[in-house]
Design brief:
Elements (H helix, E strand, L loop, with lengths): L1 H27 L7 H23 L5 H15 L2 H13 L3 H26 L3
Helix pairs in contact: 1-2, 1-3, 2-3, 2-5, 4-5
Length: 125
């Protein structure tokens, strides 16, 4: 039961953080139709998940409860693959094929790259 609460509380925190990030970005770039907020959450979340995964694998004092809360909960709620998919479907349905392809390629390639960088950085912490 405690594990479910940790994941749920983490997901709550992550989802709110994603929402606030999106609000912050849209207040700076109000007229853009490109889903920068979701892309930023995916890239930042990918980096952090790689970093925390590396730290948890290399540090015996990193308890499984921390992983459940931070990795599964917070970052699972913060990263937004389902929102990412919906944004791309919307772009495609509006005939914005180039923007959809850019969003897909940038999010996936940069997301994988920063996850790897986060993991590499964790070896030096």
């Amino acid at each position: 039961m405690m594990n479910l609460l940790l994941v749920g509380l983490g997901g709550f925190c992550g989802a709110i953080s994603r929402y606030l990030l999106g609000l912050g970005i849209s207040s700076v770039l109000p007229s853009t139709k490109f889903p920068i907020g979701v892309m930023a959450a995916n890239i930042l979340g990918s980096f952090l998940i790689g970093l925390l995964w590396g730290i948890s694998n290399n540090n015996p004092s990193f308890r499984s409860e921390y992983s459940l809360f931070l990795i599964v909960g917070v970052l699972g709620g913060f990263t937004t693959f389902s929102s990412f998919s919906l944004d791309n479907l919307k772009l495609l349905s509006q005939g914005m094929v180039i923007q959809a392809i850019m969003n897909i390629v940038i999010s996936v390639v940069v997301g994988l790259l920063v996850t790897w960088l986060g993991f590499l950085l964790s070896k030096h912490i």
